[in-house]
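dumping this here before i forget
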Amino acid sequence: MAKSKFEKLRGAIEDGNSFLSSIVVGGEVGQYQKVDHDEFESILETAELIAQDESLEPVRYESEIVLIAEAKKHLQNSVVVMKEPVEIISKVIFLKGTASQCIGSHTLHHKSGVINFHDGKAELPIELADELIKAGYVDAE
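structure:
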């Protein structure tokens, strides 16, 4: 025999509580943020209150089942993961001069290359940007 919406809600609450008791709250890799844990716990508590009334329309139980599933998925996706370090490969530089002198497009010929600036600003590889700073053409951000 198929389970009623009420029975499915009771099962979703049990499953949610089981999952909630198995996770660790914290900021370390593999742990979950407290705010996400508390939000899911609150949703389960509300569902418990609804599940105490067997006289509600089945659609009310169904909406709680959906809410629990979405909240659980959100909590599962909020696990703290190891972040890859970001390598900075460019630097933003600014032409020296007054603001009015830097408006528009400008070109700087350096060694055998041409560097284009828009409103006195350009983003370049770190090594080239450092060369231009050292030569006194530009300032760093």
